[in-house]
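Researcher: We plan to redesign the surface later, but first we want a full-length starting point. Tokens attached.
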């Protein structure tokens, strides 16, 4: 790494609890030294990283947010002073590449991308919600397209997002696939034994609309009729918890559903290995929010859990229907419930699906392999930008 060009990774908040996949990706880079630039450092104990530089928000950002987003219906961009501070920091660290995490953050950085005084190449990675949310608003759509036009390369974490970016109007010759990677050593395959009807079902995610949690509860209610000693664990926090608790009571399964809140990685792994079936029936939210490939689904697959999910976003790129899991249409709790009952009634089939799931993740979603792919993208973007200009 010594003598290699420095890469600046920009994440507005480094890091929210649900951004473990970003942390894993940055930590796995070997060929380039990394400096993280952020507006706000959070959860430093859970996401330690030595080289992090904070570029605080401007004092009047809250007012500009009200004016721009609420009154004028346009995206909030960096102010002149915020742009100058970031540009100065990038120059001071002699960064050869700027990697912006999330397309909506790329929009915020448009003043920097427009500044002719910057020369470094820019990569913007899209992860799911940042491809479609709010793009029905003309100002947001124009801004997203400008980001795609000005960036050197655009990264998408699933083929479904590659297609969505192309449909948006992003130049297809700039788009590269860079999947989410799972550290396989942390999730070794383990065959689940037949629980004799005492099945443990598990879903780990933010408690938000696109995760399909009402579908999970309704499918579990059907499953519990066939296997009354079964239990469902929902691991995560979010704004839907109260309504989900109410729904579990209405369905008559409240005593068999556990809400754990957010789990640390060691506890999450323990729960995964205690479980027999993993659910993730994602669906497109009313705001257009959709998945790439959910990280928790990949972790469950790597551990040997058969997964039951939907034909949504990038999920079919990870789950082969009937082989490494089972897929139903979005929102179809009846089909999901039937699949759970049928597969749970055939233990050998479940075991075979779990083995196939672990193999699929090892082949396509290994964190080390995806990090090497990202390094190749960095090298390509630097090469496309040409030699560093002299003063």
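Model: Full-length starting sequence:
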């Amino acid at each position: 790494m010594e003598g290699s060009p420095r890469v600046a990774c920009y994440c507005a908040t480094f890091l929210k609890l649900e951004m473990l996949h970003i942390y894993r990706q940055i930590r796995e880079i070997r060929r380039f030294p990394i400096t993280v630039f952020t507006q706000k450092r959070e959860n430093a104990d859970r996401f330690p990283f030595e080289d992090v530089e904070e570029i605080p928000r401007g004092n009047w950002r809250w007012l500009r947010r009200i004016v721009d987003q609420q009154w004028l219906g346009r995206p909030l961009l960096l102010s002149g002073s915020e742009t100058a501070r970031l540009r100065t920091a990038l120059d001071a660290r002699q960064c050869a590449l700027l990697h912006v995490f999330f397309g909506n953050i790329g929009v915020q950085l448009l003043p920097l991308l427009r500044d002719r005084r910057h020369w470094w190449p820019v990569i913007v990675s899209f992860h799911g919600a940042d491809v479609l949310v709010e793009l029905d608003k003309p100002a947001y759509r124009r801004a997203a397209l400008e980001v795609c036009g000005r960036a050197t390369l655009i990264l998408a974490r699933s083929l479904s997002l590659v297609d969505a970016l192309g449909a948006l109007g992003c130049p297809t010759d700039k788009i590269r696939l860079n999947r989410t990677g799972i550290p396989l050593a942390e999730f070794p395959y383990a065959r689940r034994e037949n629980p004799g009807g005492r099945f443990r079902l598990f879903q780990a995610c933010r408690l938000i609309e696109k995760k399909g949690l009402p579908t999970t509860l309704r499918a579990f209610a059907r499953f519990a009729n066939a296997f009354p000693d079964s239990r469902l664990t929902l691991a995560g926090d979010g704004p839907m918890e109260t309504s989900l608790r109410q729904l579990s009571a209405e369905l008559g399964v409240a005593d068999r559903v556990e809400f754990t809140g957010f789990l640390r990685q060691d506890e999450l792994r323990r729960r995964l290995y205690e479980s027999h079936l993993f659910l993730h029936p994602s669906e497109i939210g009313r705001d257009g929010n959709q998945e790439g490939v959910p990280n928790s689904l990949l972790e469950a697959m790597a551990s040997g859990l058969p997964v039951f999910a939907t034909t949504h976003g990038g999920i079919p790129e990870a789950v082969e229907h009937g082989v490494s899991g089972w897929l139903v249409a979005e929102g179809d709790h009846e089909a999901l419930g039937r699949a759970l009952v049928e597969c749970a009634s055939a233990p050998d089939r479940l075991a075979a699906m779990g083995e196939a799931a672990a193999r699929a993740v090892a082949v396509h979603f290994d964190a080390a392999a995806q990090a090497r792919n990202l390094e190749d993208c960095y090298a390509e973007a630097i090469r496309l930008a040409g030699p560093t200009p002299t003063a």
